[in-house]
Amino acid sequence: MAKSRKRSASSKSGPSAKRVTPSTRSSAMHREKRFPMDKIHELLERKFPSGNVKAEAAVFLTAVLEYLAIEILELSTNVARSRSGGKDGVKVTLQDMLQAIEADAETKELIDKVRQANASAK
Q: What's the pTM value of the predicted model, to 2 decimals?
């Protein structure tokens, strides 16, 4: 018995039609979870109203924020897995994130510097 394949919303049919595969589904889900570069650009323009904020600045800041978020999430997931005994489908809690940040020297140093900068800006 042949398995039926899901097709994308494309109106094409035949060999050139795109098919939804686990890898395309995964990449589509990944794209949905990206940081909103347009919103970050707007925030930068609001923060620095006197000068032009180039689009490249928003691209760079977005990439940095995505990288940091992924790093913290990976560290937190490791803490959650060790807490739950290595089960699949663990739930990452705020406590897991805080513990992960405290356990990683580089991340802790970065967060401490951000906290100090925010405290002195007030």
A: 0.67
